[in-house]
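[job 4471] stage=fold_predict status=RUNNING
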Amino acid sequence: MSYLGIDIGTSAVKLCVMDADGAVVKTAQAGLSSSHPFEGASEQSPDQWWQALVTAASDLPADVRAAIRAIGLSGQMHGAVLLDEGLAPIRPAILWNDGRSAPQCAAMTLAEPQVGHLSGVPPMPGFTAPKLLWLSEHEPQTHARIAHVILPKDYIGLRLHGQLATDPSDAAGTSWLDEAARTWSPRLCEISATDPAWLPDLRDGPAVAGHLTPQAAQALGLLPGLPVATGAGDGAAGAVGIGAVAAGDGFLSLGTSGQLFVTTDSYRPNPDSMIHAYAHTLPGLWFQMAAMLNGARPMAWLAGLLNRPIADLLAEAETAAEGPLFLPYLTGERTPHGDADIRAGFWGLGEATTHGALMRAVVEATAFSFADASDAMRAAGTTPDHLLAIGGGTRSDFLLQMIADVIGVPIGRSDGAEVGPALGAARLARIAAGDGSIAEVCTKPQVARWFTPDATRADTLAPRLAGYRALYPALKSVSQAIAASACRA
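[job 4471] inference complete, writing structure tokens
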């Protein structure tokens, strides 16, 4: 007997099969691509997610698929999946890292000054609600066809079981949820050109949203009628997978994006800190989260640009002398700046700059972004005494040690930490199947290695961190100067 977790990521659909003892039996994945129809835009076809799921499932051995008894879901948050009356997508989904709706965020805040307290954080480009307001202004014909709006994992849920449902954690990232009440907010819908009737039913993550249809079962090679848990947004699913299900439990995530996440037993908004205060996928819990648009992604970006393996560049980075500084905002940033327009850049390039020095600068920037996140979390009243780590970026000892050094908090890595939210989705599936309680299923993994902060290394990095923090206002002024000059022209 086993349980299937499905994670709809940005770069891949990932599957995790977990047995009744909580051990990972098998993983599989299939890649995804994004389109960028104009500067700042990021979109994916919802049907691409389904095809990737079918491809990944076909890589699971037949005997593994035959033993699966329930399914759970996780997915990238904030994506706007627009459906017509026939439940067909109207247009490509607008993703979490899409920056087109900055003016609409400002309009929502002007219309409702308390929007950050209601929805857990001020509206930011990439959130779902301002995208609907953008569509009403820029694609009115598309907006007029909307019958339903759901999130990426919930589109896969619809294809699996035929129901329109989401969980509180994914709903939290839309800017439509009244976080304290854990219900859709008519006022937040009103200021974002959204009909509340378009929104899906709200159910806790472990609740059964529906059962696997015969058509979906045939496509995936699974038994029909399997219960499908509602699931969770990727941050909350990661928390379930790492056992962060009690007040004070925290972790950091190093995937395409980056997250610093701490579970709370009450709703604790602090909009000025740009920390997300959201409902958890589990009943009676919330969380505070620093959300960075650029987690481990800049390392992969540089490796692709240089056409070299990440592992080789990281090895060179460890021995490289201090060189340039890097601002990692390839797609803007949320915590701590809430700036969709800022972009990445190197400072201090010279003729002697090596590939290893470039990667070292990228690793430092990733660590420094967590230092900013940690400071913002403290400003919001939360200071974890240790953190666990998940996501593909956890493979790098160099990166994890540097993060521990600059934030001054021990970081623990367990075996299989890179599985991340897909494992949390499998755990939700097990609970939905009735094969264990939250406390029994959502245990913490055994830490294989602790990365203990080193004060000496932190002192050595302090001038670099100060330089990094000076880069944002400097490059922001460059962007503003270019924009001002373009307006005059």
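[job 4471] summary: The chain has a mean pLDDT of 95.
[job 4471] exit 0
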